[in-house]
Amino acid sequence: MWFKNLIIYRIIDGTVDLSNLNEALSEHQLQSCLQMQMQSHGWVKPKADSEEFTHVCDQHVLIALGLEKKLLPAGVINQYAKDRATTMEQQQGHAVSKRQAKTIKEAVINELMPRAFVQRQAIYAWIDLTQQIVVIDTANLKQAETVVELLLKTISTVRLAPFSTNVSPATVMTRWLSGDEPPAVFTIDRDCELQSVDNEKSLIRYTQHDLDRNETVRYIKAGKKVKSLAMTWTNSISFVLHESLQIKRIVPLDILKESTNTVDADDLFDSDFALMTGELSRLLPDLFHALGGEDKAKS
Predict the structure, then answer these.
(1) How far apart are the C-alpha atoms of 288 and 299, rounded to whole Å?
(2) Mean pLDDT for each 10-residue chunk of the chain (299 residues)?
(3) Residues whose CB falls within 8 Å of the CB of residue 74, separated by 6 or more in sequence, listed in order
(4) pLDDT at position 22, please?
(5) Are strands 117-128 and 133-136 parallel, antiparallel or unpaired?
(6) Could you tell me which residues are beta bridge partners of residue 11?
(7) CA 206 – CA 181 distance, rounded (Å)
(8) What is the DSSP string of the chain?
(9) Measuring CA to CA, which residue among 119, 145, 140, 125 is closest to residue 25?
(10) How far apart are CA 32 and CA 118, in angstroms?
């Protein structure tokens, strides 16, 4: 189970106590949406067929936030409301008012809510007790904030802050495409976005395209900065680094895939988590170092 996207937080105060973490998480577990509730969230068990709300490998802890959401398409609501408004217009002999239309729509939503389909989703978070960071597998910042909000409620003695580096990723990536060489452990791949820094925010996107140094330098001299850049670390893991320090589209390469030859689903989950945390625990410090190290003042 490899994370595909990383949003990283630093534990700036307090520690995560494994001895009572499972119990603390269980007190905030996911509850099904109530009849008139559109969505709910809470902790779920990260590993199928497990009784624990934590999955632990050495100093690495996996937890999962469950999201439950009722699906009530706007098109369905509007069609029901339109039919009901048409009936009312025929009865009263004139068009419904804005206030009546609003009341009709609210009534339709209340009637359809208990019949709505329910969708469940899990968002995984990895707590690295050695490096004191929390890494969330999502590309959606609001989802990450939901995980953090509940984690702080669950472990009231801990404080988190978004991880920050001394030099912004945009600055460093722009330097790499301007002539500076990245550290030897990184190679630059074939996807890139450059964006102008003026109000127009014009964007140039390379997709599976060789990055011509002369061409990228010309764009940068014209006032563009690198917004995202595809990279590979030690020929093992490819990813896309974004200006926000989000890491997306993580893919373990063949050299890592070949090291896990188990076919049992339970063993594969364990080995994948151990391999992922082991590799990312080395990748992240290399990346932070390339970005000038951690900005302690913001943590």
Answers:
(1) 14
(2) 95 93 96 81 93 95 95 86 89 89 88 82 97 97 97 96 97 95 96 87 89 90 94 96 97 72 75 94 98 87
(3) none
(4) 96
(5) antiparallel
(6) 160
(7) 20
(8) ---S-BEEEEEEES---HHHHHHHHHTTB--PPPTT-SEEEEEE-SSTT-S-S-EEETTEEEEEEEEEEEE--HHHHHHHHHHHHHHHHHHHSSPPPHHHHHHHHHHHHHHHGGG-EEEEEEEEEEEETTTTEEEE--S-HHHHHHHHHHHHHHSTT-EEEE--BSS-HHHHHHHHTTTPPPPTTEEEEEEEEEEESSTT--EEEESS----HHHHHHHHHTTEEEEEEEEEETTTEEEEEETTS-EEEEEE-HHHHTT-----HHHHHHHHHHHHHHHHHHHHHHHHHHTTSB-GGG-
(9) 125
(10) 9
Environment class of 226 (CB within 10 Å of its CB; exposed 0-12, middle 13-18, buried 19+): buried
Instruction: Tell me the two tokens of residue 288.
Output: 């932070």
What are the domain boundaries of the chain?
7-71+117-162, 74-114, 169-298
Of 43, 17, 280, 244, residue with least CA distance to 146: 43
C-alpha distance from residue 214 to each of 177, 203, 226, 231 (Å)? 9, 18, 15, 19
- Distance in angstroms (rounded) separating the CA atoms of residues 282 and 128: 12
Please name the residues in contact with 155: beta carbons below 8 A apart, sequence gap of 6 or more: 14, 16, 17, 21, 24
Q: What per-residue confidence (pLDDT) applies to 257?
A: 62
Which residue bears the tokens 């994948």?
272
The Cα–Cα gap between 154 and 125 comes to 14
Distance CA 69, CA 72 (A): 9
10: β partners: 133, 161
Q: What is the pTM of this model?
A: 0.86
- Predicted local confidence at residue 256, as pLDDT: 66
